[in-house]
């Protein structure tokens, strides 16, 4: 299956998402910030990046930009919560940076696994 970088700052959410993806057969590498994700993007070849779009200090934009420079063909799934009004600018920025799918929280495990399978 796919080698996936999962960037999520909320530990419980990151753990749950990683577990679902791992159970589906994917190899998951976890990061909780842009500082953690950047060297991973440089050191490893990922099939897919799944990134929380509402990271503190606009870190998601930094991660997506770094990913595009490091691996221009890397597929990206953006995840976000808080409703469309609260996350609209994050979603727009992610799409502009090349995110091919956006999952609005809460989403179910099957939706995540299907998106990862489709893009990896």
Structure characterization notes:
This protein is of the alpha/beta class. The chain has a domain at 55-105. The chain contains 5 helices and 5 strands; from the N terminus they run E-H-E-H-E-H-E-H-E-H. The protein has a 5-stranded parallel sheet with strand order 2-1-3-4-5, sandwiched between helices. Strand 4 (75-80), helix 4 (83-96) and strand 5 form a beta-alpha-beta unit. The termini are close together. The model has no long low-confidence stretch (mean pLDDT 91).
Summarize the structure.
The protein is of the alpha/beta class. Helices cover 50% and strands 21% of the residues. The chain has a domain at 55-105.
For the largest beta-sheet, the strand count, sense and barrel status come to: 5 strands, parallel
Intertermini distance: 8 Å
* Share of β-strand residues: 15-25%
| Count of individual beta strands | 5
The whole-number mean of residue pLDDT values reads: 91
